[in-house]
Design goal:
With 438 residues, this protein is mostly helical. The chain is built from 15 helices and no strands. It is globular, with a radius of gyration of 22 Å. The chain starts with 11 loop residues before the first helix and ends with a helix.
């Protein structure tokens, strides 16, 4: 370097955050976008779970079926839209749909007698499930256009922190104001947060390539077919598919226990009071679980993967799920529910989920692209469907033998853990093979 040339100026953003000059505004905007989007969803989720608790298990089972069918229809519709519109136009249309949809639900729930409408509750349940599937997929697909690979390594961890904070802020808002605000007012708060997120994303689209195009968020129906072929062509991916399926089935069994316990705890309350009480419980579970997950991610998550390995890490959720089912069967109280759900979900998000993402690092990009969308969307939601109806079947078994439901759930959890161990061993073999071939 010419000694007369002044060295490049080092900014505080580079020193503290590792960002190059000119990246700060985009990263801050993207982080705010992720924070507001996930905070908005995290305000709506306790409301949805509270509705489930007040309506009961059979209602949830039926709505889960409708949700699965709706997701297939929405997948086909978004595939059509993506094929006809530019990516920018599709993203803006999706953001407008989120905002108008949230505002519409707020107005509908504000009407007198709305709390007695099972049809409105059902539409809200399905809509939040669809929103959860598509919104983050669209966000990350768009951000992958805006930030180059080298920039993403610096920006995405910060954006991830924004999402984690949003997951804490949402239930914190609900938990703090649940006795002061009605359900429709929380929906308007979520709509405002989603609006800010959409405004940030619209501004960020200025930096996207002019001809950016993507596949359907969550995977199109055609991509699902390709995903099925990729899964059945690989023993490793088939094992991963079985692991995800059993995760959702067993997790749904715990969720259905949650619905039953909260429903029993609010029995006898009038409708508005029951909705408020159940919202307070579900928001408290979400808040504590997200705080635990964030703390573990910061302190121990990376170390645990290194210390005990992927295989052992993948057995944590099966063990905590089995413990949760057993403890809730022994003590079906709200206090026990909060403890086991916070522990189970916090450990899953901090440890199991990152380990599951690591599993995709030893497959080819083509296998990962074809299989991941199918596993993360279709298999995940199908596991929900099987889980709710399995719980209904286990309930009938319990009429003849009180231990039958726990024994059946225990078999699923042991199978879940065994598949996790097998998957971890297959991962280690693939990783060794890849290292040896270099």
């Amino acid at each position: 370097m010419d000694p007369t040339t002044p060295p490049p100026r080092t900014t505080w953003a580079h020193r503290v955050l590792g960002l190059d000059q000119g990246e700060l505004v985009r990263v801050v905007t993207a982080t705010l976008c992720g924070f507001c989007l996930f905070a908005g969803y995290s305000v709506l989720k306790p409301l949805r779970d509270a509705i489930s608790a007040t309506q009961g298990k059979e209602w949830v089972a039926g709505l889960t079926t409708y949700t699965f069918i709706t997701l297939l229809a929405v997948t086909a519709l978004t595939g059509l839209l993506v094929s006809k519109l530019s990516w920018k136009a599709f993203v803006l249309l999706a953001q407008l749909t989120w905002i108008l949809g949230a505002a519409a639900f707020g107005l509908l729930f504000a009407r007198e007698g709305a709390l007695n409408s099972k049809e409105l509750d059902g539409c809200f349940f399905v809509a939040i499930s669809v929103f959860n599937l598509l919104s983050l997929s669209i966000l990350w697909a768009t951000l992958s256009d805006i930030f180059r690979a080298d920039q993403a390594k610096r920006a995405f961890p910060l954006i991830g922190i924004g999402l984690s904070l949003g997951g804490i802020a949402g239930p914190l808002i609900v938990n703090s104001l649940v006795k002061q605000l009605a359900q429709h007012q929380f929906i308007f708060i979520a709509a405002a947060l989603i609006f800010v997120s959409a405004a940030c994303l619209a501004w960020l689209l200025r930096f996207a390539p002019p001809r950016a195009r993507h596949g359907t968020p969550g995977g199109s129906l055609g991509e699902m077919v390709e995903g099925v072929r990729a899964v059945f062509a690989s023993r490793y991916l088939l094992t991963l598919c079985a692991f995800m399926f059993l995760y959702t089935v067993t997790g749904t069994l715990v969720y259905m226990q949650q619905v039953g316990i909260i429903n029993a705890s609010i029995a006898g309350l009038e409708k508005a009071a029951a909705r408020t009480a159940s919202t307070a419980i579900t928001s408290r579970i979400d808040l504590y679980a997200n705080i635990l997950a964030a703390a573990l991610q910061l302190i121990v998550a990376g170390r645990v993967l290194r210390w005990i390995g992927v295989a052992a890490t993948l057995t944590i959720t099966p063990l905590t799920t089995l413990s949760a089912i057993g403890l809730l069967a022994f003590s079906p109280t709200v206090a026990m529910l909060v403890i086991v759900q916070v522990a189970r979900r916090g450990l899953h998000y901090a440890l199991d989920k990152p380990a599951r993402e690591v599993l995709y690092t030893v497959v080819s990009p083509a296998e990962r692209y074809k299989s991941k969308g199918f596993i993360d969307s279709f298999v995940y939601r199908f596991g929900d469907l099987v889980g709710v109806w399995s719980e209904q079947g286990f309930g009938k078994l319990g009429e003849s033998s009180p231990l039958a439901p726990f024994a059946s759930a225990g078999i699923l959890c042991f199978l879940f853990g065994g598949i996790g161990m097998s998957l971890g061993r297959q991962f280690r073999t693939k990783e060794s093979d890849a290292t040896g071939s270099r």
